[in-house]
């Protein structure tokens, strides 16, 4: 009986240890599950697509002269590093030109999980309404903001060229105007304007109908 009692005590003690260990494991599993749920919830919140009304509020704040500088800075991607002239021009474009911006549905997922694309109608007095498609808004610092590139696009389409901020002029630099040929690669002749023959390479005869180089007789017509 004595040995059986000791054995029973040892067995009971072992069972208690096992139960404690199981309890600890369950606690760790619960904590891990809670952390995973929190991470998933955070990701879902960051990826939640805003409504057209919410994006309209961003544009309204960006162009509101009564909004504080901090409020306007928070409406554009990387606003703290943006030329302040951009915000002044956005405000002026609304006040002076009478430009109106309106985001319309649908708002669609963008190029990254932290961006969305929307259509923006913008109108100017005495002009036909314009439609800007795939206007990008980005999720930054826990809020949606207008991308820098599209802030510049809206500005350049609503103010005179001499009022466009330098940072927006730089973005448009190097783009050939509509109807003009793109510049030729270095070391190659530029393409001739439409309707004119391209110049012949140095040392080669000019094509039929092309003017002869200065100081040289024109080639005789083919017999």
Automatic annotation (TrEMBL):
Pfam families in alphabetical order: Mtb12_C
Region (Disordered): 26-46, 163-223
Low complexity biased stretches: 33-46, 172-181
Superkingdom of origin organism: Bacteria
Biased composition (Pro residues): 182-223
UniProt-listed InterPro entries: Mtb12-like_C
Domain Low molecular weight antigen MTB12-like C-terminal stretches: 49-160
UniProt keywords, alphabetically: Signal
Signal sequence, renumbered to the chain: 1-23
Similarity comment text for this entry: Belongs to the MTB12 family.
Name listed for the protein in its UniProt record: Low molecular weight antigen MTB12-like C-terminal domain-containing protein
């Amino acid at each position: 009986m004595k040995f059986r009692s000791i054995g029973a005590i040892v067995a009971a003690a072992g069972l208690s240890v096992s139960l404690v260990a199981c309890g600890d494991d369950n606690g760790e599993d619960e904590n891990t599950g809670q952390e995973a749920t929190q991470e998933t919830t955070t990701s879902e919140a960051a990826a939640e697509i805003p409504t057209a009304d919410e994006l309209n509020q961003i544009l309204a704040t960006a162009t509101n002269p009564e909004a504080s500088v901090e409020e306007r800075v928070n409406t554009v991607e990387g606003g703290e590093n943006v030329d302040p002239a951009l915000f002044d021009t956005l405000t002026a474009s609304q006040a002076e030109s009478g430009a109106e911006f309106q985001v319309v549905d649908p708002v669609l997922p963008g190029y990254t999980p932290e961006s969305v694309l929307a259509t923006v109608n913008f109108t100017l007095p005495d002009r036909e309404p314009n439609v800007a498609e795939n206007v990008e808004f980005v999720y930054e610092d826990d809020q949606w903001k207008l991308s820098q590139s599209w802030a510049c696009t809206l500005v350049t389409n609503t103010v005179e060229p001499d009022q466009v901020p330098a940072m927006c002029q730089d973005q448009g630099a190097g783009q050939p105007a509509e109807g003009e040929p793109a510049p030729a690669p270095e070391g190659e002749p530029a393409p001739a304007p439409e309707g004119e023959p391209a110049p012949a390479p140095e040392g080669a005869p000019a094509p039929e109908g092309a003017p002869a180089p200065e100081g040289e007789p024109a080639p005789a017509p083919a017999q």
